[in-house]
Amino acid sequence: MGENMDNKIYLGSNLKMYKNVDATVQYLRELTEITKDISREEMELFILPSFTSLESSVRNVDRSLVKLGAQNVGWEEQGAFTGEISPLMLREFALDMVMIGHSERRHVFREHNEELNQKALMALKHGLTVLLCVGETASEKDFGVAAEVLRTQLKMGLHQWNVNDISNLRIAYEPVWSIGESGVPASAAYAEKMHKVIINCLIEMFGIEARKIPVLYGGSVNINNSIELIKQPSIHGLFVGRSAWDAQKFNILIRQVLEEWKKDN
Ligand code: PGA
After folding, report:
1. CA-based, 20 to 30 A from 71: which of 15, 50, 58, 232?
2. Residue 127 neighbours by CB distance under 10 Å
3. Phi and psi at residue 43, in whole multiples of 5°?
4. Which residues of 166-203 are buried (b: 16+ CB within 10 A; e: fewer)?
5. Best substitution site from 179, 225, 250 to test ligand 1's pocket, by max atoms within 8 Å of Cβ?
6. What is the pLDDT of residues 233-249, one digit of tens each?
7. Can you give the pTM of this predicted structure?
8. pLDDT in tens, 29-41
């Protein structure tokens, strides 16, 4: 399981449009405190709060224990882009990472692959690790084109990236039909199959070094399915929504996943 080359497990959460500044800081403090005994040599833990909570989060969190990132970024450094956030603005907080192409950005806000590629290049230029989310819709799955969709999202999203850039890259595979309240979690076998498609595509793009890129599964991960998912050889970590938003519950999930992962690492 988790056979990417750096032998670390990746666990993170996107707080979406939940938690105000106080609730975010309280959550991050609690999560840091109850997980601080876990060696970060074997686990990377990251949280993506709302834009308005980033400044307080950075001030209150030990980043060697919990990495922090933004949920989105604009594709220009500055200009007449009302409502957008520039990578330079994110850099003021010295964030570790930025997520690009979350399913809600793609489907609710209609972001397309070309624009996500511009964002990914801009984030790279400014030294932010990119968490690129990919995933097929239910209809794409039913038409049997899930692999083609994933390959397109990767090839377009990471266009003009090269092998020297991949230490700044994480991929989250999140099938659209598996996310949120009405989502149906992917079976571990299906997730493994799609992770293999992703890894093979990354190898095709960047060569064998691409095996170092962590590929996380996300979409209705919970305390009951997390062990089966992390057992899969091509799943290097888990990207958790609802089941991570209570620090105590996330801690339980983290520890059970880590225990399982350690059996083979
Ligand atoms: P969920 O969210 O775990 O609540 O389904 C996952 C996500 O949107 O990243």
Report:
1. 232
2. 12
3. -145, 130
4. bebbbbbbbbbbbbeeebebbebeebbebbebbbebbe
5. 179
6. 999 999 999 999 999 99
7. 0.96
8. 999 999 999 999 9
